[in-house]
Every structure is written in structure tokens, then in C-alpha cells.
Amino acid sequence: MAKARKNKTHNLKRIQCLVDELLDKCLHFATNEKPTNSVSSILDEHRQLYEIIERLIELEKDVGTALPDREAHFDSFIDWCKNNGIDCSNIEVFKCDGDNEYGLKTRVDINENDLLLVIPRKLILSTETAFNDNCYATFAKVDPILQSMPNVLLSMHIIEEYCKGDSFWKPYLSICPSHYSTPLYYTHEQMKLLKGSTALQEAVKLCRNIFRQYAYFWKQLHTPSSAASKLSMKNVFTFNLYRWGISTAMTRQNFVPSTDGSTMINALIPLWDLCNHKSGKQSTDYCNERGAIVCYAMQHFSSGDQITIFYGNRSNAEFLIHNGFVADDNENDFIYINLGISKNDPLFALKSQLCKQVNVPVADKFILKAKNRAMDKNLLAFLRIFHMNQNELESLIDNSDQLFATESEKYKHLQNRIDLFMSTRCDLLITSYDNPNNVLQTQISGNIIKLISFEKNILESYVLK
């Protein structure tokens, strides 16, 4: 027994040293972050942080609690839903293609706009219900991160409820995935597959922020004077548990009105969040009269069809980073393209003056959609200003009408120059992507390869043949 205690203490000290090292490195990289950081420096940051995380996971493997075995708990989850007022008679949970993926399908024909689901407020897990737990509330009221970051407040609430033996939400949390396909689960080799994509910097930044939060909360939980030391999660808190809680919130959270209706709060909506995404229309709202989330069919569903909902207007890079998938039918897909007017441009003063006048950045990440879709208005205005001569610029200082208009005879003479510029720039960006060969096919690598393909398609639509 004495030897076991000694080994446990030694292991804890090794974890603490790595946690301190992780905090220091995260702070260093955050302090030195620039929008112009090279791909190699971004990947080197991830490599250094990931090496520490790998060592922590190894040291913590005997510390944590088991994450959900979701398939074993669906029956008790459905019973919990029924016992708390959800009508489940016309829907059922089924296993989709993919790694431990599930969804909902209908047992009956459902017409567009028919009522699908009603989820009573009492089942919703939110930043508001976080304060119903006195122990967690005591910590949340004094912790600066939990006070300022509602998504983290919700994530830690999820973890605490999962670790409590008597949590009301345990049947729900037990059917959440045990792992996800977000960047928090990427190996370094998988992260390297994002080379060329603007999603790379966002993915690495997300990892750094979550790594830093984990280290911060680990120290809080192991500080006897901290209110965190009284939480149920204290003795089982690991990186694996934290990234699970963060990913559960990140991939499933929505916004619902607070109880008094004064603000919108972060929340998880049980059962409804088993619906997978498909392009369509928003069909879910909060009904004050029912005191519940109500979801209507966004299209006709025949008996046996999967029930899908529309997650919102997001790019595939946003879906990849925050939801862990890439949509095949994403009508709203776009990428970011970095453009700017050089200070060495002889007309920089005039161009920057006009940009400021019409509220268009002189240098920024601009939204780029496929060429067969309407160009983003800010990008269109920037490109027109970028390609104007002195006389054209001076004439616009007092008359900048139609600068944002997609169809404008006034600026039609600039189109050939814009087309050539965009063709050259997009062709160059295509070459910055790696061509992955002999990549081990997993859900994560498959998602990344699909994203790269869609991003290249957008760029290729501008390349002149």
C-alpha cells in the first residue's frame, strides 16, 4: 500500500511538471502569434504541444473515468426521455455509417413543417442549470474563465454532471460519443494534412486554447484552497476527460432563451441533438407557451428516412473544426483568402483612403465563394479598388456608388484585370496544398482530405483555362 501511494504521488508530480510546461508553451505561442505566421511555424507549435499532450495521456491512463459506451445506454436514455415528457412514439435511434455515428429516423410519413419533436426545458442542460449545483456554482462564480467564457462554463458543467453518480442528466450524457473527430483528436500527422488550408491556423489555435484551459483547470482542481477542489471531477480529471467535455459542448451546443427571456444562453438539447445535418432551412425554435424546444420537419420524410436538420450557414472548414465533419451538399461553403494593398503601392494613400471611406479593409481575410455564386461584396469592392488607376480612384472619393454592386456597368472595364489577378492568385494557392499519398484512411483523415478537395474546387473555379 505504501509503495502504491508513493508511485501515485510520483506520478502526480510528473503530471504537474508536464502541466506547468504545457502552460508555459501555450503562453509563449499565444504571445507570439501573428496572422502572418508561416505554415512551418504553425505546425511546429502543434508538434511541440502535441508531444506534451501525448505524454500526459500516457501518465493519466490509470487516473480517469471511463467515457460513455453509448450503444449500451440508448434504451435507458429513451426511457428517460419518455419519463420526462418527450413523445418518442414516431422516432427511433439508429446507427449510421461511420465510426460510432448515430441518428434519428422516423417510423411514419412526415410532411414538411409537421411537428417532429418537443423537448421540455427541464431536460435542457445549459449555462443556467450549471448554477443549480451549489458546489459547481461556488467555483463558477469566482473563476475568471468560467465567468467570461460560457462555452467553457457549459463544458465543465457537462464534465461535473457526468462524474456525479446521481446526475439528472447521466442517461443523456451516457449516450454522447466517447470521442470525436474535432482537431482536439488529431495526431500531428493528421494535422499536417491541413497544410495549405486556412483551417490549419484555426485548428492549431483551437488546440492551444483547449490545452491551456486543461492545464489551468488541472491546477485549480489540485489547489486545496480553490473551490474547484471540492468538485466531483477532481480525482478523475484528465486531458481525455476535458477534451471530451469541450468537444461534447462544441459539437452539440445551441442557443436558447434564458428562463426569464432576457438573454440567449449556451445549451445542450437532448434527443434533438441526435439529428444529423443536411442543407435546408432552419426549423427549430423555442416556444414560450410550451416551455420547450419545438422542431418541425424542414422537408418531407417518408417512413424509415433519417430525420435531418439544418445546422446553419457555415463553411466546411467551420464544420470540420467545430463539428468534426465535412458536408457534401454545403451550398454555403467558402474559404478565406488573404489579400492586401501593399504600402509600396504608389497609389496606397488613395486606395486606403477609399477603403476606409467605404468600410472595406486594406488588408484582411476575405470570404471567397465558388465563382458560380455571387462574390462577397467586401471582396468585390476591394478588388475593384485594388485595380483602379489614379483618375478612377480620385473620381470615386466623392462618388462611390455601385462599388458593391455585383452587376455594374460602371466597373465592367476592370473585370478582365480582376479575373486575371484572381486566376494567378488562386492557382498559386492551389500549389500550397499537399497531395496526401498513402494516408491511413480514418474518419479524421477522410474528413480532412474531403475538405481539401472542396477548397481546391473553389480556387480552381477562378483559374482561367
Poorly predicted runs: none
Structural class: alpha+beta
Strand order, largest beta sheet: 1-2-10-7
**Which architecture name of the largest domain does CATH use?**
Alpha-Beta Complex
Strand percent estimate: 5-15%
- Indicate the mean pLDDT: 94
Can you tell me the CATH class of the largest domain? Alpha Beta
Kindly report the name of the CATH homologous superfamily of the largest domain. set domain protein methyltransferase, domain 1
Total number of helices: 16
Radius of gyration: 25 Å
CATH topology of the largest domain: set domain protein methyltransferase, domain 1
Count of the separate structural domains: 3
The total of beta strands comes to: 12
H/E series, N to C?
HHHEEEEHHHHHHHEEEEEEHEHEHHHH
* Amino-to-carboxy terminus distance: 75 Å
Which shape, going by the Cα principal axes? globular
Largest sheet: 4 strands, mixed
- Work out the helicity level: 40-55%
Family: Belongs to the class V-like SAM-binding methyltransferase superfamily. SETD3 actin-histidine methyltransferase family.
Keywords: Actin-binding, Cytoplasm, Methyltransferase, S-adenosyl-L-methionine, Transferase
EC number: 2.1.1.85
Protein name: protein-histidine N-methyltransferase
